[in-house]
């Protein structure tokens, strides 16, 4: 009965994820619907998907009246942790084995070596992803208690300070959430299907037991039961990877800043009608800033940014240099990565800078008040500092960060093209 109950729960969650995804798309495309909406449901669903196969020792309490977490069985979270470490090491080992055998290109003619070039790039992409993920999994586990407030506090802040407020929902965060949710729903099934239909692809775990593989597109020879087992392994692998990078890496990095911006907007509304005591609410923003920076401090932020930028550089280089060489499926995949990566830099990083810009605007508004506000207000403002999501190297996300990082990506792609 337990197995049946879990299967029913899985199906219900999957249907709920698709329904939530459809709602987010509806809000994204209908301005009138956004006017009376909030970010709570869309972001909460993304968080829940990020915790589906997570090794973190908690889950959302679906029976609670407020958004809160409940303990997850320790043995289950430990099992997820061990499995994910083992699978990451397995994929790294597969990559090293391929590079030390077929990847050397011994005995290949000119055409074969040209084809080997894009295959090495594809293989390097998946090896890098596994390596980054292995370290990030360990850091997430070590900082599990630090991420808990980020999964609840921003929701409470939005619910409390935006109650009755309308028209504050924009397309930027909704679009980012829809992208993350859609990818988490579709990509694991794509890799599951690839394991069944293209078992010779060397970055799929099923390739280890597949025989007779003259090309990557070959069907190979492998037992159906073994093929299904490795397809499920690949499905699990991509569920937890996407949960790490999108569910937590995208949304849990952005949403706290959006909640801080909404709180600053509420403070600004009070200041404009002469309620100076509203500035005390900025202490909540400062608490949220501290919680966010404690979780994302060195080296986690660098690893996450590094993983995103490496993927974008590889994808752009492959699409530009190897457009006529790549198979259609690989070219389409890398083209999508290019689009997602560009959106990540120009939308995601822009959202990360929003609370910093809003806090500076609030300080500037205080200066324009008659006499700069009362003496008490000036003293309180002097004890506050702008919201800064730090990169752990002294810099922080501001309005110019997206352009600087995009310039970094373009420079690296140009350097690779010249070499």
How are strands sequenced across the largest beta sheet?
1-2
Instruction: Detail the poorly predicted runs.
Output: none
- Counted by DSSP, the helix tally is 14
Provide the β-strand percentage band: under 5%
Outline: globular
Structural class: mainly alpha
Rg on CA atoms, Å: 24 Å
| Count of discrete structural domains | 1
- H/E element order: HHHEEHHHHHHHHHHH
Which labels suit this protein?
mainly alpha; 2 strands
Describe the structure.
The structure is a single chain. Helix 3 packs parallel to helix 8, helix 8 runs antiparallel to helix 12 and helix 9 runs parallel beside helix 12. The chain is 71% helix and 1% strand. The chain has 419 residues and is mostly helical. The mean pLDDT is 85. It has one domain. Strands 1-2 form a two-stranded antiparallel sheet. Keywords: Membrane, Transmembrane, Transmembrane helix.
């Amino acid at each position: 009965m337990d197995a049946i109950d879990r299967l029913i729960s899985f199906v219900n969650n999957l249907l709920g994820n698709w329904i939530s995804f459809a709602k987010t798309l509806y809000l994204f495309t209908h301005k009138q619907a956004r006017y009376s909406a909030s970010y709570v449901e869309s972001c909460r669903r993304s968080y829940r998907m990020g915790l589906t196969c997570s090794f973190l020792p908690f889950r959302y309490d679906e029976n609670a009246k407020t958004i809160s977490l409940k303990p997850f069985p320790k043995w289950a979270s430990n099992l997820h942790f061990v499995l994910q470490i083992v699978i990451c090491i397995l994929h790294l080992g597969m990559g090293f084995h391929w590079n030390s055998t077929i990847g050397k290109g011994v005995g290949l003619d000119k055409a074969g070596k040209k084809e080997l070039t894009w295959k090495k790039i594809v293989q390097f992409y998946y090896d890098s992803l596994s390596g980054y993920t292995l370290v990030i999994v360990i850091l997430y586990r070590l900082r599990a208690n630090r991420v808990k407030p980020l999964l609840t506090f921003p929701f409470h802040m939005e619910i409390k300070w935006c109650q009755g407020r309308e028209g504050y929902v924009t397309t930027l965060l909704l679009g980012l959430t829809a992208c993350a949710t859609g990818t988490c729903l579709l990509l694991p099934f794509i890799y599951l299907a690839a394991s069944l239909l293209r078992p010779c692809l060397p970055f799929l775990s099923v390739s280890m037991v597949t025989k007779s593989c003259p090309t990557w597109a070959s069907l190979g020879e492998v037992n159906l039961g073994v093929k299904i087992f490795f397809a499920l392994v690949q499905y699990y692998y991509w569920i937890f990877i996407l949960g790490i990078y999108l569910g937590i890496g995208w949304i849990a990095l952005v949403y706290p800043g959006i909640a801080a911006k909404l709180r600053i907007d509420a403070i600004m509304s009070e200041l404009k009608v002469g309620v100076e005591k509203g500035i005390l609410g900025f202490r909540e923003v400062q608490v949220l800033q501290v919680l966010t920076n404690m979780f994302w401090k060195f080296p986690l932020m660098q690893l996450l940014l590094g993983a995103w930028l490496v993927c974008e550089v590889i994808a752009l280089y492959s699409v530009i240099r190897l457009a006529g060489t790549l198979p259609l499926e690989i070219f389409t995949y890398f083209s999508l990565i290019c689009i997602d990566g560009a959106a990540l830099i120009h939308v995601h990083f822009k959202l990360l800078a929003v609370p910093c810009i809003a806090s500076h605007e609030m300080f500037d508004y205080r200066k324009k008040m008659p006499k700069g506000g009362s003496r008490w207000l000036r003293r309180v403002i002097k004890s506050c500092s702008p919201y800064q999501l730090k990169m752990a190297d002294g810099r922080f996300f501001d309005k110019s960060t997206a352009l600087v990082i995009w310039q970094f990506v373009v420079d690296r792609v140009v350097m690779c093209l010249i070499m």
